[in-house]
Amino acid sequence: MLDILVANEEEIMQIANSHEKALEKEPHTSSLSRAAARVLSWGCGCVVATLGARGATAFFRTNEQLPSAAQCSSPGGSYRRRGQVASTRTVTKQGGLNVVELEVVGRRLDRAIVDTTGAGDAFTGAFIGALHVHSHPALSADSFSADSMVPRLPFFETQVTAALQAGCEAGALACTCLGGSTVPDFSPLTESY
User: Fold this and answer.
1) Alpha carbon 165 to chain centroid, angstroms
2) Number of domains observed in the structure of the chain
3) Residue span of the structural domain in which 53 resides
């Protein structure tokens, strides 16, 4: 069982469409939310998709009841933090699971993009670091309810939103210098988080 999968959009689609048992039951999917739901159904606690300049999205299961079939994909709310573009929260029914989708687009930097090499690594490092910084002493297996990897909300959701924001900002900052050969100035990130 995997707690959190962090991968880019294309990799998540490949993972979801490569599992033999999944392909026997369901056809190939080209929808990121369906692909993430498929990975969640295999026991993963949270799927995080990096989307390049479009930000990142986290998907996780919820026991939250959907208002009605017509409203299943309506936005559930937006959040703002320190001048960032608002995050979007949506609850949908995907493959028999109620899935929370948190989408975050980091704020625009007033620096030129030099090289995208290492942006995903910077995102992942900052995401995991922010999860740790924003974690509660009881976070671990206690953060999930007994009925198979459904995170306890709202704590988990708040923590993941902050981690997505930190990851997006670190990924953007990593693009402001030659990837792998120099380290960007992450002080704006550490001041915010």
Assistant:
1) 10
2) 1
3) 4-192
